[in-house]
Design goal:
mainly beta; about 60 residues; five-stranded mixed sheet; globular; 1 helix; Ubiquitin-like (UB roll)
Length: about 60
């Protein structure tokens, strides 16, 4: 299946998760949140053909 991640098209196996997409794109899933259709989704959320997802960098400070 094909999905869009931050504007780039990724080819993933059926029933892939958001975490799978991040790994394929080389993004550390501990440093980002994933957004689909305006809402946050969990890394274990299953993706569907044609999904458009974006990452939001997590920033912490002290």
């Amino acid at each position: 299946m094909k999905i869009a991640l931050n504007g780039s098209i990724l080819e993933l196996p059926e029933s892939s998760t958001a975490a799978d997409a991040l790994r394929k794109a080389g993004i550390n899933q501990e440093t980002v949140l994933v957004k689909r259709a305006g809402g946050l989704i969990a890394d274990i959320e299953q993706l569907k053909e044609g999904d458009v997802i974006e990452t939001i960098s997590v920033i912490s400070g002290g």
